[in-house]
Amino acid sequence: MTQAMTGAKMVVQALRDQGVEVIFGYPGGAVLPIYDEIFQQNEIRHILVRHEQAAVHAAEGYARSTGKPGVVLVTSGPGATNAVTGITDALMDSIPLVVLTGQVPTFMVGNDAFQEADTVGITRPCTKHNWLVKETDKLAETIHQAFHVATTGRPGPVLIDIPKDVQFAEGTYTEPRRARVAHYQPRVKGDMAMITRLVEAMETAERPIFYTGGGVINSGDAATQLLRELAAATGFPVTSTLMGLGAYPASGEQWLGMLGMHGLYEANLAMHDCDLMINIGARFDDRITGRLSDFSPGSVKAHIDIDPSSINKTVHADIPIVGDVAHVLEDMLRLWKSRGRKVNKPALAKWWAQIQEWRGVECLTYVNSDTIIKPQYALQRLEALTKGQDRYICTEVGQHQMWAAQFLGFEAPNRWMTSGGLGTMGYGFPASIGVQIAHPEALVINVAGEGSWLMNMQEMGTAIQYNLPVKQFILNNERLGMVRQWQTLLHGGRHSHSWSEALPDFVKLAEAFGAKGIQCKDPADLDDAIAEMLAYDGPVIFDCLVEKHENCFPMIPSGEPHNKMLLGDASTDDAIGSSGAVLV
Amino acid sequence: MAALNIQQGTSKHSAYDLRDPNADAIERHTLAVIVDNEAGVLARVIGLFSGRGYNIDSLTVAEVDHLGHTSRITIVTTGTPAVIEQIKAQLGRIVPVHEVHDLTVEGASVERELALFKVSGTGEKRVEALRLADIFRANVVDSTLESFVFEITGTPQKIDAFADLMRPLGLAEMARTGVAALARGA
Ligand SMILES: Cc1ncc(C[n+]2csc(CCOP(=O)(O)OP(=O)(O)O)c2C)c(N)n1
Ligand SMILES: [Mg+2]
Q1: Is residue A104 predicted with pLDDT exceeding 60?
Q2: How far away, in angstroms, is A171 Cα from ligand 2 center?
């Protein structure tokens, strides 16, 4: 059935045919025809944010917590440029998004028209792919292709720029099944010869480790299930990147905790000393590897990734396997079982004994206080008081983010939304809005720093308008803490512009928007205050005044190998010079 | 590869590891990339090279299949073996890219480039230029009493050699197309 309709109507029809339920957006001149169509229907819900960057982060939160693509609609020029940070964030963290931007009419493109920007030019390096649609007849097919590209292979953001005259003109609608997508079909099955080599290595490995990443979560629930099954069957230890938390449960016995710059001692030392590293959907990011030349010097490295360009990019893979995590794990597990479920039991026992010893260091130990709330303590209490609930955690970027990764446990995938690759301050609050839209009944908490939170605080309006009970748990150290920590450790304690001065009264700020504000500064009051936050049915800003100069440890300074980790005494001002900082 | 001129160990003072991981031998490779002939595809390819710091020694592009709307981009690039592998993998990720061939490793191939040379001069030099052009099988496509325009086809090395000879004889201007290359055999 072919149908004639306007481009604007086509947009809404194509979104509907793609199963889209929610879009996050902000109107403007160049998208008025599309907004007019949105007004005249009720199937697709539009969430009006307060800034286009927030629309993209909200869509990211929606996508990461559901596994479905997030959809964004913004106007030309400033609408599009405001979205760029979010789009780049989604590219770095492989989040599927479809971003629709309005553009000036085709006959004005190139004339420096009002609110014209070269949107496809600006976003070419920060999208997986993008399109400028010049004919209404091609619009629907392009939208269907966009969903295919965003969600196939390594997911990522795509953008469609739609000039206003294309939205007004009539054209023929193309149904999803008629859209040509055949050319873009990345391979999902891994090479059996390589998988066999990996299984052989697993059978004899003395010190194996699973190093898992966001790719496990992106691959879907089957991948998570298979990872858990494989880990249980082999008894190998499991660590994960920041992006992969939740794929293997934090309560699992083989869980070593997160690895990397602020990862756990046992995880990093196991990575350094292993003889078989099985990278599943991670990408040897520099926050993970530290000094490349000393990265896990004695190990055979297997790397499973759907993106061939991830393999051998920075670290040589001895056993490269291009494919989708779920497909490859399925083949691995089947083959390993059919070959007799062999592992090197005696060696594994010794390996675990070694790991046990490392665990004994208790690297997350900090000096608590009964007068000041330590940020770690605040997170431990948050963890204790929300445990067992199906809870979704977002974060901003900074020390609080790393402490959240260290002190909160994730039992299931898609429950942890954080900006890993780009490290975007201002990500967490709008992301929490997207998560809450997707899961209206769930407990959604954004663990924030006061600096980051202010970057998208205008979204209080969105939270109130849509009655979203998102909990903004701000670890307020009145510092750009992570910057301050680097200055303390690496720049002689010269804390150049890393203060958060002139902070608002967060309780009054909450009240000004019609939300609830809670401030807590005494450790003795913390549990009650958190309980009050959790009990309140509506958005809450929780201003948790914490120790101002706490440093986040463990820490591997950049360019150092994994076994040169700082385990500093938490409240020192000059950790590298002090005796509290231990070079292991 | 613009080697980072930073000493080992200084990276400790940065949030990033600044040492060049690819301090290896540099190779020259000729890549043939088959792409959809659509708006922006060349910008994607060039943007990949500039954005990731890869080299382009030469680049040619033209539609080669008018029905299928596909173009062939021939890129001559240099880099360490690891960088060359990355370039191919990164090119392969671009959505409108159909195929990436490394002609340098996929068996024998032929490479040709076309160049136009304007050589100005009179007397002995003019005669000598014409004589050398003949040896190089360059054609005269324009002439005045004081100049020739030669057209020459060949490998980049042959064109370089011809340019070296023409320079003392009054080489005024030159235009080169960049390399076109095909694998040999059926
Ligand atoms: C948009 C953006 N600008 C700057 C930075 C650099 N940066 C990283 S962490 C940080 C401090 C964050 O402060 P805050 O949100 O208060 O968190 P804290 O570290 O104190 O927990 C800064 C400025 C960034 N990551 N993102
Ligand atoms: Mg702070």
Answers
A1: yes
A2: 52
Provide the token pair at B169: 């004889």
Tell me which residues of chain A, numbers 559 to 578, contact chain B at a CB-CB cutoff of 8 Å. Answer: 559-560
pLDDT tens-digit readout, A403-431: 999 999 999 999 999 999 999 999 999 99
Q: Are A308 and B92 a contacting pair at CB < 8 A? A: yes
Indicate if ligand 1 lies below 6 Å from the C-beta of A402: no
ipTM: 0.89
Average pLDDT along chain B: 89
DSSP output for B53-99: T---SEEEEEEEETTTTEEEEEEEEEE-HHHHHHHHHHHHHSTTEEE
| Consecutive H or E run containing B174 | strand B171-176
For A103-155, what is the HEC assignment?
A: ECCHHHCCCCCCCCCCHHHHHHHHCCEEEECCCHHHHHHHHHHHHHHHHCCCC
Q: Is the pTM of this model over 0.90?
A: yes
Chain-centroid distance, C-alpha A425: 12
- Residue whose C-alpha is closest to residue A365's, from A532, A554, A93, A182: A554
Both structure tokens of A414: 């898609």
Q: Which among B36, B39, B86 is the nearest to A132, CB-wise?
A: B39
- Average model confidence (pLDDT) across chain A: 95
Among all bound ligands, the one having the nearest atom to the CA of A497 is 1
Nearest of A445, A360, A357 to residue A400 by alpha carbon: A445
Smallest CA–CA distance from B99 into chain A, residue: A183
Per-residue pLDDT at A572: 42
Dihedral Cα B95, B99, B103, B104, nearest 10 deg: 50
Give kind and range of the element (H or E) at residue A533.
helix A526-535
Q: Inform me whether the C-beta atom of residue A46 falls under 8 Å from chain B C-beta atoms.
A: no
CA–CA dist A205, A207 (Å, integer): 6
Task: Inform me whether the pLDDT recorded for A40 exceeds 50.
Answer: yes
Q: What is the pLDDT of residue A182?
A: 73
Rounded Cα gap, residues A397 and A427, in angstroms? 8
Would residue A115 show up in a list of annotated catalytic residues for this protein?
yes
CA angle B110, B116, B118 (to 5 degrees): 150
A110 touches chain B (CB under 8 A): no
- Catalytic pick from A457, A482, A533, A555? A482
Short-list A424, A509, A515, A504, CA closest to A463: A515
Burial letters A48-65, b for 16+ CB under 10 A, else e: ebbbbbbbbbbbbbbbbb
* Number of helices and strands in chain A (H, E): 22, 20
CA–centroid distance, residue B95 to ligand 2 (Å): 40
CA angle, B12 then B14 then B16, to 5° = 100
- Tally Cβ neighbours within 10 Å of residue B51: 11
A50 vs A58, A231, A339, A433, CA distance in Å? 11, 44, 57, 12
